[in-house]
């Protein structure tokens, strides 16, 4: 979520008033804002997407709730020591959190372990261990519409009789100390992005958020006028018409068997009725195609922790496979491929398959990704139910990612086209009229220059490196992962360095290359990549032959509040994943909206950015998905590129020989070995096209006016990438609710009681 103060002031229309009031107290608002900690309760893009979605849902007047876990420790703070990443605990609640309100009156029990008893009346899950879920509510204000939604985060609490109710020998002290075991569930965020780690505590976290949330939803449904309260047992027929639940990846997939358990075991609905309601309630968003990221939980772990849920999953699978077998008799391989249970070695539950079977809609997050989902990853399922599969291209909230972080540009745009674009970003197309307006071109360039000077001062303060603010700010910020190819950027840096040294008198367009992002603590290769970038920076930044022509900075502890500083100051945005690996990307959209140009592959939302702005207004290079597929078919041989390209060979040899690590020449052996022998992401295959494309970037940068005109064309084409548009599509195509443009009257104005009735609508 990042910081809340400035976003709240903007959405409430109070920023100027607050700035003025604080100024009159002799304080500086910006200094005050810098004190607030980021709420970093997720990893990379998936978590930030949820935050943008909450902002858009409130702005569109949807009755929507965001549910998650109130981690005591969020994503770790990254320190760089001697070029290596070191993790520190993110004790973000140390000074308290003024934005949250504990709601002990809505505390709910969550069960674990135990066993299942079958009888004539049905299944009973008994002898369980109970953990309490305490909700904390954070307000989510819409933009200037007097709507405030709720984000409800659950915290784990041990019940007061914890370890004291059972045949306890009387070690009261130990029993109280053991409360920590239960409360550890919400202690810390697992820091993996695009990687599955099958740990018991992680599964506990996933079930904890799901079980508490579903109880909360059902309590609200029963209390509302939609749930019939005439009889002892509520009629659930209208449940999917009143409730829509969107699964953000497979992490909350246990919600599907949990809702079935509630309907069948507790509410005593027949299976077929329960399954129909469940499928119509859930929809699933897929966020990645990387096989190592797909959640596959061992059956024996689920059996121990959630025995009843395993039985329900088996029953879902049996009925699912019976259906497939009736359509494709004797096709045993299809049954194996489509099963929710993977046999061979340890039996595992494929959570993505569970989500597809248990949902009425499945979507990818960019056109190209949704195609890959349909034709490759889940092709058997898409063949069976093509109408279930959709695309919903991701977006970003223009409130945080333009108004808040780049007020200079936001104001400049408002002067030209009015202020309405903030709620309807498609209006940015009106800027096309000003592409040839010399004054506007100069003003856009001036805003960018001011942002660069401000960020350069920040860098000099934090990193003690002198930055040339007229150099091109070439920025690559995102989680560190092999598929995102920070290594390819690194090879380009080394190539530029070698070119400067080869001919110091030749014209060179000065660059400040900024790379930032966190590596998962257990991801060895990602940590080596960080070390390599810092080792290269050490050499480049201290070579007098290079001077101010080339500077390399590794941005420490990249997070939302730092993104808000670096993105408005960026000239060139690096979006260079291997085609077919980045589901969408959202940083790409933030840079586009803030007046950076993109160098990128035809991957994720880059494809649609090129479609909107015209491919000639992005720097597109490298293999397309078809080329990657063809190269896989032929077999990728890194050596061929190394032998054919002298500059690549030179750069690789320097890393290999210890040019960047003289005290330990073999330091980067693992990196070199990976690049030659098991590089799944084919860095060498795109190196030549990347370097040539970068030359075109430098050439255009020399012509400030032509560069800025291209920037304006990009901003004018960025309207599609508002999360408001994304959410309108979810609302229309999946949730079946109508966004409301009605501005609720403020609380100080009396309301007409007749209009106070809530219109019929689903709560998402």
From TrEMBL:
Catalyzed reaction equations: [(1->4)-alpha-D-glucosyl](n) + phosphate = [(1->4)-alpha-D-glucosyl](n-1) + alpha-D-glucose 1-phosphate
UniProt keyword terms in alphabetical order: Allosteric enzyme, Carbohydrate metabolism, Glycogen metabolism, Glycosyltransferase, Phosphoprotein, Pyridoxal phosphate, Transferase
GO molecular function: glycogen phosphorylase activity; pyridoxal phosphate binding
Top-level class of the enzyme under EC nomenclature: transferase
InterPro entries: Glycg_phsphrylas, Glyco_trans_35, Pyridoxal_P_attach_site
TM region(s), chain numbering: none
Record flagged with keyword Transferase: yes
Presence of keyword Repressor: no
Sites bearing N6-(pyridoxal phosphate)lysine, chain numbering: 590
GO annotation, biological process: glycogen catabolic process
Residue segments, region Disordered: 738-764
EC number per UniProt: 2.4.1.1
GO cellular component: cytoplasm
Cofactor: pyridoxal 5'-phosphate
Function: Allosteric enzyme that catalyzes the rate-limiting step in glycogen catabolism, the phosphorolytic cleavage of glycogen to produce glucose-1-phosphate, and plays a central role in maintaining cellular and organismal glucose homeostasis.
Family: Belongs to the glycogen phosphorylase family.
Subunit structure: Homodimer; enzymatically active. Interacts with PPP1R3B; recruits the phosphatase PP1 which dephosphorylates and inactivates PYGL/glycogen phosphorylase.
PANTHER family named among the record's database cross-references: GLYCOGEN PHOSPHORYLASE, GLYCOGEN PHOSPHORYLASE, LIVER FORM
Protein name (database record): Alpha-1,4 glucan phosphorylase
Organism: Tachuris rubrigastra
